[in-house]
Write a structure and sequence with these properties.
The chain is mainly beta. About 5% of the residues lie in helices and about 45% in strands. The longest helix has 4 residues, at about 5-10. It catalyses: (2S)-4-acetamido-2-aminobutanoate = L-ectoine + H2O.
Length: about 130
């Protein structure tokens, strides 16, 4: 059994901080679950271009308000606490936060923990 606490990730290598977001990676590839689990804060007033070409992601918003815009279609989805969205087609999108949003994110395949978005919004496929 694996038991972890968010407080144990904060301030460690499991907490990855960027200009627009902070991701606390709670379960990683090394945990052997077949997915990774993150507690992520998206900062108010930011828009992040994202295009996970190597991962599928499901996101559950537990706090805050913002939107996801699909780049190819222009379609916009309002996000607030209680909303789930799943990027099941490796959708290129823009994630915008009106106020800080707290998200629970699941990635398949799992990340190893050091990933950050490249210039195209992609997490690399890292093999550890």
């Amino acid at each position: 059994m694996i038991v972890k606490k968010l407080s144990e990730a904060i301030g460690t290598e499991a907490e990855v901080v960027s200009e627009n977001w902070t991701s606390r990676r709670l379960l990683l590839k090394k945990d052997g679950m077949g997915f990774s689990l993150h507690d992520t804060i998206i900062r108010a007033g930011t828009t992040t271009p994202i295009h996970y070409q190597n991962h599928l992601e499901a996101v559950y918003c537990i706090e805050g308000k913002g939107r996801v815009q699909l780049v190819d279609s222009g379609e916009v989805f309002e996000i607030e606490a209680g909303t789930v969205y799943a990027l099941d087609k490796n959708d290129k999108h823009l994630l915008s936060a009106d106020v800080d949003m707290r998200m629970v994110c699941v990635f398949n395949p799992p990340v190893v923990g050091t990933e950050v978005h490249d210039e195209n919004g992609v997490y690399p496929a890292i093999v550890d």
